[in-house]
Amino acid sequence: MTEPTPAPPAPPPAAPAPTEAERAELRRHGILLTSLEELYNWGRSRSVWPLQFGLACCAIEMIAASMARFDIARFGSEVFRPSPRQADLLIVSGTVTKKMAPQVVRLWNQMPEPKYCIAMGACAISGGPFKQGYNVLKGIDRFIPVDIYIPGCPPRPEALLHGLMQLQEKIRGQKISGPDAPRHLRADQACDYPVPDFGEHDLVPPQNPAVWHPPAPSAPEVS
Amino acid sequence: METVEQIRDRLLARFPGAAVTVVPNPGPAAQHSLLLGAERAREIAEFLRDDPVLQLDYCSNVTGVDWPGHLEVVYHLYSMARKHGPVILRLRTANRSDQVTLPSLTPVWRAAEFQEREVFDLFGVVFAGHPDLRRILMWDGFQDHPMRKDYVEPDDYEWEPTAHGDVLAKAKRHAAAAGSAPAAGEAGA
User: Per the CB < 8 Å rule, is A201 touching B154?
Assistant: First the structure.
């Protein structure tokens, strides 16, 4: 007579995924635990290639950041590409005039995904000291999505490096699947943006409503 | 260098009947200028450039002024050979709307080419005889002349974070025109 075979033992419950702190602790002991997502984002964030593109005095600070004293090569971004087809990062470094704005949007459209945009300095953020001028765009974020804003007039190279580090942090936090995935990993998101035309009095349209709308007032002002 | 009055007298002797008057500058700079009639301005300019006493071979600056009844173009002339200057020329259009043509001085001083294009672009003065009269700062399809006093700028005051003064007034006008749209981000509105 045969004994009934015992039921196979239930598998042990899956261990919870290690937290970032536990991974860091293990890394100190020479054990590397990683995920595809972390590895992918780590690689991407460490070699962001900017477009070699300057608009005004902020570009001088950007050039200084790339030279020996500030040395943007420490962050893997020293390869300034002269072609938008080879660049990951558009640093809008300076005043965007309305005459230049369609060309900036066109450069952005020519860059392959994944791509990121840094608005460097007061002019690229809002028009800066030329905000009330008839010929200056009141912020490049009216036409293309901006990831990092760096205030300053112009920002010092340290500020640009800090902005780059913030961008790297943002890249490291991106998901590679699911509804929170960035634009370039989702089929339902367009990756090119309409280029404005030169109108008789202003750009047509003056802004891209899919990208920009006036921010709501943060607090009611007493007048 | 000769005074402006001496230059005027020599010009009137050389070009009888030409309209040459002195516009005095009462300020401390005392840079008096010569107002030329548009008809013979080109001949007078060539004379000023080639005259052996003056030899005004360098046009350093061309700019425009929008006066209530007319447009004005101002030329600043120096002499590299004689190391003197400036001699200031003014040309005036008949009005601000349809008679805005002036003779171009680019054939006399090549340096005036881009600056006359700029005056054409921003003030709307048409330079007859200019070799390449196109807009230089704004795009070709642009209709306005932004440096004129009556220029109406595009209304993009939908968001003014720290508006005050004139900007606040414009932002309020924009908010009123936009009705109760959520574009009411104007400070103090």
Answer: yes
